[in-house]
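RECORD TYPE: protein structure
NAME: Phospholipase/carboxylesterase/thioesterase domain-containing protein
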Amino acid sequence: MLHSIFGCAPEPHIGRQMSAPDGNEMAVTVKVGDGAPVQEATVSGEERAPVTFTSHLQANVKFWTVYLPAVFARNLYRGAPTTSRCRDLPARDPDLQPDAHDHLIVLLHGLLSRPASLELFANELSSAHPTATIWAPRILNRGLATLDDTVQHLWERLDQSPWGDRWPTTPITIVGVSNGSRLACAFDALLRQKHHRSTRHLHLVAPAVVGSSVAGLVAASPLARFIPGRVANVVGEFAPSSAVIQGANRAFWETASAGSPTEVFVYHATHDLIVQPVGLVDEWVAQSNDNVVVVSRRDFHDHNHWSLVLDGEIVGNIVASVSRPR
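PREDICTED:
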């Protein structure tokens, strides 16, 4: 199992023992003055105007009128693939047959989502790189499993596939969305521990690599005792102060590579209300190390947490990343 990688055991069933993240770590402060919650933030020494719910809606008109309907159409109304061969994703090589292919691309969907939500990535990559194998696995329990169990499940599927003998010397690109980004980092650390010797590129879209303060608040609330055990443990893992988050990030930044350093591309939405506080994302990116992990970051101002997967520029960056000589 992967406890030795993350340096921690799975989170215990949460309840009254769980505590919220340290308030001093929050990038924004919330005050209640005239009865309405007001957020204030300071960026680069300049005071921002208070962010209210109304101003947030106004800043996200494009999200509410264009991207959100598209997300619902893609995730709710298309229907899941029905044939066993297309169970993971209606893309080429869902069963991980390497043939003469020279590149493995792994697409990891978010919490409670499904592989078909990444169909845009799969189609563009398939068209641009016909010699690559695209693998979009259905995440264990749709993400409602511990990080240890989920990454172990991914590893077993890869190791027992026809790629089992080839992956150590094959360039690998991993695209993770939201919780899929957290899995991508843990999977990358495992590949390094297993002595992957070729290059690895990680594309983290709306990354939940530092957890979410929302999860921390839920875990610390009185309602936590009513959450089913399996779900409660996962919620506990997402708290920024959780042992799982801390251990996984230590493994990601410290596990030596047998080959080239991992190159990471972070795509973050400035209006992301799920991956908070933003200050923790800044600290995570700042740990970039030329010998182990090299990080590039791009902020998107017209997107929310759920709409980044529809951004054509991100898709183009991923396609270009796969095309680069390695």
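COMMENT: DSSP finds eleven helices and ten strands in the chain.
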